[in-house]
Design brief:
Nucleotide-diphossugar_trans; Rossmann fold; 12 helices; five-stranded mixed β-sheet
C-alpha cells in the first residue's frame, strides 16, 4: 500500500460488543486519507470475524491476526505494518468524533509537530465527563526539555500530570515512533502508555497541545479490576516500567526530579490497582493512604465511579473500614456485596468518623468537598490522600522497589 497521511491502529481482544461502533466511527471520518489497521490479538470471540467482514467492504482496512499477546504487542505489530506519515492509536472498545483525524492532522501539519495531544471524553456507566489538558500551546524542543518533561508525570499536584499517558488521545510521527516503541519491553503491561508517550516526548522537537475533546474513552465496569494478578506480579511489572523510564529520561532530567516524578506516578498506579489500601507481596495490608483513618473507622464513601467501585470491592474483602454509607450525587442503582449506592440525603456528622471521596482527581475532590460542606458535612472529616514523599518512598522500598527512589 502506498503511503497515506495517517495509519490508525486498533489492537483488539475480547471486545465484541463494542468493536463495530469503534470501526464505524473511524470509517465515518471527515478525513479520508488514512489506512485502518485492525490487530486481532487472537481474540476468542467473534472479533476476528468482524474484522475480516469489515475488510471485505472497505479497502482502507488491513487485518492482522497474530498470536495472543498484550496490548503493547498489538500496538507494535500494527506499527510494523503501517504506511502513514502519522500514527493514531484507538482502543477497540472506544470511539471517536467524526472530525478526530481531521483536527489531529491539521494541528500536526500547521505546527510541524512531532506530537499532538488533545482532550477526550470519558464515558462510564452512561455518564460522560470531559477531560482537557491543563495547558495548551505549541512547544519547541527547548521548552519540552526545560518546562514539560520536568513536570510531565507530576507537576506538584498529585495525579495531575502535565501530559496524560494515554497514547489514544495523541498523534505520533511514524518514523519517530519506530525509534522508541520497539525498545519498550512487552512485559510492561502496567503503564505501557507512559513508557511510550514519555519516551517519545523526550525525542520530540515540537509539541502541540489542544483542549479540543475528540476521543471517547469507554471505562468499562469489567475493566476496573482487569488483569490484576498477585501483588508480587504487579510490583514486578511496575519495576520494569520504573527501570525503563529511568533509563530513557535520566539523560534529560536531574536525578531528584526524575525520582520524585516516578515515585508519585508509581504510587498513583498502585493506588488505582489496589483500590486504595495497599498490600504487600503476600496480600497483607501494609499501607493505608487515607489520612487520619484507622482500621474499623466508620466511613462514608463518596463516588460510584471506577475508583469508588474498586475501593468498595477491595474493602468488602478486607473489612478494613466499617462502611456506613456509599453515596453519589450522580445516583445510579448499584450494589457491591452488602453495600448499596444511595443519593446523598441528610447525614448526621455523629454517625461516621470520616468521609472518603474515592477519586484521585484533585479537581473533582475539591469540587465534591465544597458541595458536601454546603450540605452540612464537617469538612474536617473529609479525608485527604497521603502524598508525603518520604512516606511513599518508604512504602515503595517495602514493596521491593530499589532504594534509589528515596535518595
Amino acid at each position: 500500500m502506498n503511503e497515506v497521511s495517517i495509519s490508525v491502529i486498533v489492537p483488539i481482544y475480547k471486545i465484541e460488543p463494542y468493536l463495530s461502533k469503534c470501526i464505524d466511527s473511524i470509517l465515518d471520518q471527515s478525513f479520508t486519507d488514512f489506512e485502518l489497521i485492525l490487530v486481532d490479538n487472537e481474540s476468542p470471540d467473534n472479533c476476528p470475524l468482524i474484522c475480516d467482514e469489515y475488510a471485505q467492504k472497505d479497502n482502507r482496512i488491513k487485518v492482522i491476526h497474530k498470536e495472543h499477546g498484550g496490548l503493547l504487542s498489538g500496538r507494535k505489530e500494527g506499527l510494523r505494518n503501517a504506511n502513514g506519515k502519522y500514527v493514531a492509536y484507538i482502543d477497540g472498545d472506544d470511539w471517536v468524533d467524526k472530525f478526530y483525524l481531521d483536527i489531529l492532522f491539521i494541528l500536526a501539519e500547521v505546527n510541524n509537530s512531532d506530537l499532538v495531544v488533545t482532550g477526550h471524553f470519558r464515558e462510564f456507566d452512561g455518564k460522560i465527563e470531559t477531560v482537557k489538558p491543563v495547558y495548551t500551546g505549541v512547544f519547541e524542543e527547548n521548552e519540552i526539555k526545560s518546562s514539560i518533561l520536568p513536570k510531565v508525570m507530576y507537576n506538584g499536584t498529585f495525579c495531575e500530570p502535565e501530559i496524560t499517558t494515554y497514547v489514544w488521545s495523541k498523534l505520533f510521527k511514524r518514523e519517530l515512533l519506530k525509534k522508541i516503541i520497539f525498545e519498550v519491553p512487552d512485559e510492561i503491561v502496567m503503564g505501557e502508555d507512559a513508557a511510550i508517550t514519555y519516551t517519545y516526548l523526550s525525542i520530540s522537537k515540537k509539541l502541540t497541545i489542544s483542549r479540543i475533546p475528540l476521543y471517547y474513552y469507554r471505562q468499562r465496569d469489567g475493566s476496573i479490576l482487569k488483569s490484576v494478578k498477585t501483588p508480587k506480579v504487579e510490583y514486578y511489572r511496575l519495576g520494569l516500567l520504573k527501570d525503563f523510564l529511568e533509563i530513557k529520561l535520566s539523560p534529560l532530567l536531574n536525578k531528584k526530579n526524575l525520582n520524585t516524578q516516578i515515585l508519585y506516578y508509581l504510587y498513583s498506579l498502585i493506588l488505582v490497582r489496589s483500590g486504595g489500601l495497599i498490600h504487600d507481596a503476600f496480600g497483607n495490608i501494609i499501607f493505608n493512604p487515607f489520612l487520619k483513618t484507622e482500621k474499623n473507622s466508620k466511613v462514608i464513601v463518596y463516588s460510584s465511579g471506577s475508583f469508588g467501585r474498586h475501593f468498595i470491592s477491595s474493602n468488602s474483602k478486607s473489612n478494613f473500614f466499617k462502611i456506613v454509607k456509599w453515596i453519589d450525587f450522580d445516583f445510579h442503582e448499584l450494589n457491591i456485596g452488602d453495600n448499596f449506592v444511595e443519593p446523598p440525603s441528610f447525614i448526621s456528622n455523629t454517625e461516621f468518623d470520616f468521609l472518603i471521596i474515592a477519586s484521585l482527581n484533585p479537581s473533582f475532590v475539591k469540587s465534591i468537598k465544597a458541595e458536601l460542606t454546603l450540605m452540612g458535612i464537617d469538612p474536617k472529616k473529609i479525608v485527604q490522600i497521603n502524598t508525603d514523599e518520604k512516606e511513599i518512598s518508604r512504602l515503595l522500598v517495602k514493596l521491593g522497589f530499589e532504594n534509589k527512589l528515596t535518595q
